[in-house]
């Protein structure tokens, strides 16, 4: 299938999840995230979930990280829709958030973080294939972010659904994930 087809199909599938299904899936995603080795990480970029898009709830992971790995710096982003880029900021306990006009929670007056410092990036997605290629919302924000990061940054997608066989229209700018976590298991790609 093509990205546009997968984008529409998986938006619909995600929006049809009941509150109980979503809560169960979020807890399963967290359980798998807790199995990853976070000991060598200093900076972990986490997307803040868009509630209206029924995205996986990353607040559970953030709360767990702050207790289980307090020395890890949580990093969040602010999107610049004029040029399709994201700036990264420390997400401290007292960081104020505002929801932008697209429903994305973003930091206000936070400490900037360089992309090269990121050790792990949790990425939102709508679909992923068995090679780790992801389908996002189609704006390329994370593709541009990954171009600015170190080559060894560990990329983790979060999905409520299992990988599809193959995405037809993968571009040269698409960077495959290292792994994707679904409620069923952790899928490693590289």
TrEMBL record:
Enzyme Commission numbers on file: 6.3.3.2
Family: Belongs to the 5-formyltetrahydrofolate cyclo-ligase family.
SUPFAM superfamilies: NagB/RpiA/CoA transferase-like (SSF100950)
Broad class of enzyme this protein falls into: ligase
Protein name per Swiss-Prot or TrEMBL: 5-formyltetrahydrofolate cyclo-ligase
Pfam families referenced in this protein's UniProt entry, alphabetically: 5-FTHF_cyc-lig (PF01812)
Keywords: ATP-binding, Magnesium, Metal-binding, Nucleotide-binding
Entry superkingdom: Bacteria
Keyword hit for Nucleotide-binding: yes
ATP-binding found in the keyword field: yes
């Amino acid at each position: 299938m093509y990205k546009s087809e997968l984008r529409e199909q998986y938006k619909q599938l995600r929006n049809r999840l009941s509150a109980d299904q979503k809560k169960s899936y979020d807890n399963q995603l967290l359980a798998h995230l807790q199995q990853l080795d976070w000991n060598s990480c200093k900076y972990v970029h986490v997307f803040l979930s868009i509630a209206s898009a029924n995205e996986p709830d990353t607040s559970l992971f953030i709360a767990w990280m702050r207790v289980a790995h307090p020395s890890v710096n949580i990093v969040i982003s602010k999107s610049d829709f004029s040029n399709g880029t994201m700036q990264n900021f420390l997400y401290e306990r007292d960081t104020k958030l505002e929801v932008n006009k697209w429903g994305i929670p973003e930091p206000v007056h936070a400490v900037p973080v360089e992309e090269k410092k990121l050790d792990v990036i949790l990425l939102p997605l709508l679909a992923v294939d068995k090679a780790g290629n992801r389908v996002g919302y189609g704006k390329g924000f994370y593709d541009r972010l990954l171009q600015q990061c170190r080559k060894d940054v560990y990329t983790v997608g979060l999905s409520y659904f299992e990988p599809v066989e193959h995405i037809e229209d993968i571009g040269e700018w698409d960077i495959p994930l290292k792994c994707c976590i679904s409620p069923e298991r952790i899928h490693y790609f590289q």
